[in-house]
Structure prediction request, 307 residues.
Amino acid sequence: MYYIDPLEVRKLTRDLLPSSREHPVDERLRGWNWFQSPLSPYSSELALGVWEISSAVCPTRRDAWIRRKVLRKSIPTTPTLAKGIVIHRVVSSIFLLAKKLAYLGRYELRDELLREAGRIIDSEIASMKAYARSLEEERLGEFCHRIAKWEATRIESKLWEIKAKYPFLNEESLVQLSFPFSTELVLDGSLLGLSKYLRVDAAWMFGGIIFDIKTGWREEWHRVQVAGYALAFESFFERPIDIGCVVYVDEAAGSLRVDRDFFTISDGLRASFLERRDELQMMLMRDEEPKVAQRCPANCLLREYCQ
Prediction:
């Protein structure tokens, strides 16, 4: 999911990175300026999730109100969201095991990664059945196995590529070059009024790129969500994040399609995330119940609780 191909490297080096240097981010919108406007949150007492702020399912944000003020418990999810959760767990588990094996000096990884992926897939689908209605278990399982085969093959190939180029490397250096990103990176976003336990799908180890995996069609708020993680990263590490990437993973004619959307994390995306954060915090803190949306989204999980 996170290995960049030669064409993407060209796009980054010839387009996005030069553009980000010519048009640098407004310093007031860097996460390390969390103590002053417009970064400082409306409240430090109400910690929100980045997804919760960014997602634009309900136009009046009544979905957040119902979750926070009415239900306050886990609710059923959609097959699409369940699919995304299983894919995230499979991918993160494969990378974690691959690093462990590489540190132990084992480089024939593919078969072992696939066995672990199979166990994770069965376990996660069984768990999701309790939350997702109309879950197509067999189809989801087959799709996740295709993802696991693709990812395990790429990981083993990358490891051998690095090992062949630098046969003198010790395990530490080999892992750093073979896995140049941190997966499931935990961030404390509390300086920005966010959760202390944010989880970023992946961040480029040498700085500068945040990755987020999605399934389904592209939506405007996906980039806003990445901007939120970038702000949290900057507030935590005081290092700049200028590039975001949403990795779209979907089924395609018995195979899979992986499409990476690279973009600069612009002032506009940062401002959009902060505006949504402030609006949501104010609504919840002031106890202002939002109205039912005039055009209620068909994919909203909370329709039965909303009226």
About this structure: The mean pLDDT is 89. The CA atoms of residues 1 and 151 lie 7 Å apart. The two ends are 40 Å apart (CA to CA).
